[in-house]
Amino acid sequence: MSAGSATLEHELASTRRLLWGEHVKEDVFRRWAQGFQFSADEPSALIQQEGGPCAAIAPVQGFLLKILLSETPGHSFQDLTSEKCNSLLVRAVCTIISQCLVSKYNVAVYRKNDTEANTSAGNNVSVEEQSCDAIDHFHRRIEVHSFQTLSEVEAFYTRNIRILKDKYGVLLLLYSVILSKGVSTVEAELAELSDPLIHSTYGYGSQGLINLMLTGRAVAHVWDHDQVVGGLRLRGIERQNDIGFLTIMEHMQYCTVGSFYKNPKHPVWVLASETHLTVLFSLERRLAAPETAGESAERIFRSFDPEGNNFIPSAALQDVLCAADLVSEPEYVELMRRKLDSENLGIILLSAFMDEFFPGCERGAPDTFTLHHYNGLLRSNPGGRVVYRTGRAALLECPMRAATTDPMLTCLQTKWPSIDVVWDDGQSPSLN
């Protein structure tokens, strides 16, 4: 059933402004005008043709992998049929839409003209499109179908898989997510921001758009819960997410990623560089186990030891105890400071801290495990072949932070400070 034309026109105009702002650069829009396409070399890996749409493609890839890993542990990725991959794509898309917690689901569809309908390739440019702005052409031909249940949405996409795989598939998903959630609701969640969800010059997605795709909430920050900064309440991630998020920007101290994102329900993480999103995943389920109390305290201790020296200044002990929800009364802190720094050297060792507060603490995660990495950009893969890269990871005794210049390792160390990875082909995958 199609939505009312007047209401639809208003909602589409509002969605357009929310995504693109008042002025849309033609080249930015065209970079986003692609469908969800699978790699010929990796059946379940999606291809990204140009820079920009990773803010939609990487989350879909992440949820697709979450479903695949949950249902077929140990499955050979090369054995997947095209029908199975299409089914995974539909279910991943439906998962993203369902997180919006809506009363009804609004699915955007691009209505082809006669010229487009007679072509087999979804990326051909029609005569009509050549004669006007591509974005105006796109909006004039959007239809919206409403459904009451998610199973109806899944059945609709399954019957009409080309909606997702043809030229505007990625954009249609964005519009479906926003139209289902409601433009006013998205705007309210982005209350402190005025910029569009897609950068008007460079075409990359904002953190609000990334969070919307990953969690169903278009909040602008990646810390846990809301935080009050300068008298303003800034929204963060409200609960443990199905898949995680790590960013190299945390290493640069531009943001703080909270535990909800670092410790998702499934061992799948979207990784962010300064300009691109990729996906890290593992078949090791224990990587998704919640942090133990000792692991949480060790992570907090290390956050006060940015150089990776395995010690902190004695004066920082009270802040560490407070952050770890341990007793932090001044008299107790002074007692512990004298005990842990008995030689009055002005430092407290990590080992002494852990032995005192968490003796015999065991790790929830294994010390060694296998990781896989996905980057959808053809130019970022060796030989231009989009395939999953495999590495063998180990959690070492001492952090590697001070020693590495590898962006991939730097990003991973925001979650695992002591991680080192040896990649099967001898070369670290690109985050860009």
UniProtKB/TrEMBL annotation:
Occurrences of domain Deubiquitinating enzyme MINDY-3/4 conserved (ranges): 16-341
Lineage: superkingdom: Eukaryota
Its EC number(s): 3.4.19.12
Annotated GO biological process: protein K48-linked deubiquitination; proteolysis
Cross-referenced InterPro entries: MINDY-3/4_CD, MINY3/4
Single GO molecular function: K48-linked deubiquitinase activity
Reactions that this protein is recorded to catalyse: Thiol-dependent hydrolysis of ester, thioester, amide, peptide and isopeptide bonds formed by the C-terminal Gly of ubiquitin (a 76-residue protein attached to proteins as an intracellular targeting signal)
Enzyme class, first EC level, given as a word: hydrolase
Keywords, comma-separated and alphabetical: Hydrolase, Protease, Thiol protease, Ubl conjugation pathway
Pfam families hit by this protein: MINDY-3_4_CD (PF13898)
Family: Belongs to the MINDY deubiquitinase family. FAM188 subfamily.
Task performed by this protein: Hydrolase that can remove 'Lys-48'-linked conjugated ubiquitin from proteins.
Name of the molecule in the record: Ubiquitin carboxyl-terminal hydrolase MINDY
